[in-house]
Amino acid sequence: MSQDGDIPVCPLCGRPIPPGVPQSRHHLTPKLRGGKGGPTVLLHQVCHSTIHKTLSETELARRYNSVEALRGHPDLARFFAWVAGRPPAWKGKIR
Predict the structure, then answer these.
(1) What is the value of pTM for the model shown?
(2) Name one GO molecular function term (predicted).
């Protein structure tokens, strides 16, 4: 949770991430590409898994190492827009 007690929000799909919902931290630069100890963002597990199914570690390190870049990827943007309409606890199958 954030410091003010609010429920965190996934910066990719915009849905809240309440306690107990599958979630994980995404290293904006992959650990294997120099991102160990670098910035991370809290995401729904389904959003995080979709990133790693879509992009290689090299692509993530070189071009998609920010929330804005991830949201700008055409395939990911379509997924994030679609999943935004699902309940926060939705964890469906990863394409």
Answers:
(1) 0.88
(2) endonuclease activity
